[in-house]
Specification:
Order of helices and strands: HEEEHEEEEHEEEEHEHHEE
Strand content: 15-25%
Radius of gyration: 38 Å
Largest sheet: 5 strands, antiparallel
Number of strands: 14
Distance between the termini: 20 Å
Length: 302
Amino acid sequence: MGSGQFKIAALSFAGVVVFAWASLAQETQNEQHIEVALRMIGHQVLLNFNDSSSRVLPIVKEKDRYRIQLESEFEFNPEELVATVERVMKETKLANAYIVEVEQCGSGEIVYSYEINDLEKESIVPCQTRAQPKSCYNLLFTLMDKKENDAAVQPTNSTTASGLFALAAQAKYILITLLIALLAAVLFLRRKRAPKPETEVNPNLIPIGEYYFDKRTTELLFGQQKTELSSKEADLLLLLYNAANTTIEREVILNKVWGDDGDYVGRTLDVFISKLRKKLEADASIKIVNIRGIGYKLVLDV
C-alpha cells in the first residue's frame, strides 16, 4: 500500500472520529440547553405563587418526554401556566410545537394538558380559566420540534441520571460507527496485495502486472507468495513478456524455447501455456491469448 493511500485512509478515519465526537458534543449541548430551559419553567411556576425557596428537582427524560418535578406543592391557573411556559419557550428558543401535561404526583393522573403548535397554527388550549387546587404536581413536556441552538449555554449544576443514560445511548451508536470505520481501515490496510519489492534493489526482478518474476531464481512473486517455474516455463514467460501485447507465432516460440533439443511433442506448447495461465491467475489483468492459427500473445494493461 502506497503512502498516499495510507494517508487517505488515515485522514478518512480521523474525519469519522472528529465527526462522531462533534455529533456527541452537539447532542450533549442540546440536552443541556433543554434541561436549563425546563428548569427555568419550573422556577417561574414556583415564582408565580411567591415561592422562591423551593427547589426544582432534577429533570427526568422518559423517551421523548421530559418530567419537571417540584419540591413543594402548588396550585395553578391554566391561563397563567400557558403564558409562563410560552414566554420561557420563546426566550430560550426551545420549540415551536410542544405538549404540556400536568400530572398528579400520587396517582399519576393527568389533571390538565394542552398543545401548542405554532407551525401548523392548530394549538389546543382547553379550560384556561379553571383553576386547579394546591397539590403535588409534575409537569410533563413533549417537544415536537427541538430547535437547534448553537449559542453557548451555561452548564447545569447537577447531572441527572436521565442525562447520563442519554449520553450513554449516544455514545453506544458513536462507538459502533467508530468500530465499523476502524474495521474498514484495518481491512483496507491489510488487503491481500502486499507492497511490491523494489526493482532498484534487485535488478533481476521483472514486473509483470501485480507479479514480479525473478530471472535468477525463476520464481514468480505475488506479495509474500512465491511460485517456482521450470526452466522452460521461465523461458516461455520471458519470451512472451519481451513481446508483450504482440502476437508471437507458434514456430517462433517453439524454436526459441525448445530449439532442436527434441523435447517438443504434440501439444506441449499448449500445455505450458495452460501452466503459465494457472500460475498468473491471481492477477486478472494478465492474459495469455491464443491467436487462432497464428500463435500466442501476452496481454498486459499499460
